[in-house]
Design a protein that fits this description.
It is a single chain. By secondary structure, the protein is an alpha+beta fold. The chain has 2 domains: 185 residues, no CATH class; 228 residues, no CATH class. The chain has 16 helices and 13 strands. Strands 1, 2, 3, 4, 5, 6, 7, 8, 9, 10, 11, 12 and 13 form a 13-stranded mixed sheet that branches. The protein is elongated, with a radius of gyration of 32 Å.
Length: 428
Amino acid sequence: MKGGLYREIIGMAIATIRTQKMRSGLTILGIVIGITSIVGMTAVVRGFDESLRDAIGQMGPDTIFVSQFSGVSIMSGAELRELLQRPTLTPDDAIAIERQSNSIASVSLTLGEGGGPNSTRSRIRYKGERTKQLTIMGTTANYPEVFPIDLELGRFFIEGEVLHRTRVTILGQTPRLALFPNTDPIGKTVRIASQPYTVVGVIGPRPSPAGLNAGQDDIAIIPHTTYQKQFGLNVSRARRGRFQPTLIAAIPRDGFSRESAMRDVTNVMRIRHGLRLDDPNDFDLLTQDTAFRLLDQITGATFLALIGISSIALLVGGIGVMAIMTISVKERTREIGTRKALGARRREILWQFLLESIFLTTIGGLLGLLFGSAIGFGIHYATEFPIALPWWSFAIGIGFSSTIGISFGLFPAIKASSLDPIEALRYE
């Protein structure tokens, strides 16, 4: 009996929604927008986060990266203007770290790869063909030990070629396909900034940590000694506030902890930069653990901002639900009076209107899940940007929509159930 009664209440709620399609649609619009933003943005942010974690995981857990500044300083509140005034790292810094730190086994140096205006850019030519502007990067022979790369063809340059400033290069996919689409480039002579270079290797496709290529294939790698001879370092300009992309990576010796190696690196750099005991470091040290913590801070802040923005849409949707349901109660006053006169109890009236509110917001939540997922997959297929749709994002979507239905539908439902049947029947 009781089950049949509640089925009747549910049926009446659904019938009311069906007869008020326009009103019902407008009621759930805010809910749809809010849930869509939660699911869609969660898919993108989580995909980005997981992809970056995979990339960070490829870093050696003990490798120490030394840079002019990093996200560590930015997240700590340092001003970018002050960070840009820090002294530029130089090859001499890398040599000093390797020679003066007993705990360091080897040091890798990377010059010129900073992206945008801070990178060294040039076209590469072969016979009558030329590439677009590409990043020219100088590094050491042990670069593959620090930054895992997949050589599609050939080899990486060797220590002897670095010492003798040999003009050899490893091409990324962009220059390889532009200049040698159907031929083997190994052994061919190309021109980088008018200078001849022998191609000794080709890097396989390099998707960026975010899933988009983002120019990762637009690169040619040369020995850092050759890079310095041809392009210089522009140290003086960098000291006046121009960021010079220089990265040093130090690998600890066997038997030495990463912490002791970091102390050695810090001491060497502070002495070279002439820092006093009370002076802060004018460089950053970054490890895999630090990168993970930095990523956690960034994604955490992003999710908080996402929840805040989505909550505004959901709040507006909830207010809309309450307003529409209040209007519905007023319009159906005589109906409520008739039902009460025929024996309907207060809780039955309350449940009827509360279920209408819950149904409306749940429908909005389901549509939001559908649209949010579609947006995420659309971004993925259009741009190859990675996405992730964790189960909890769907649970949050349904939970939020149901909670809004209960919270904002409760007041109109209580108002409807509290109507006096005699006064309700007299209502015009």
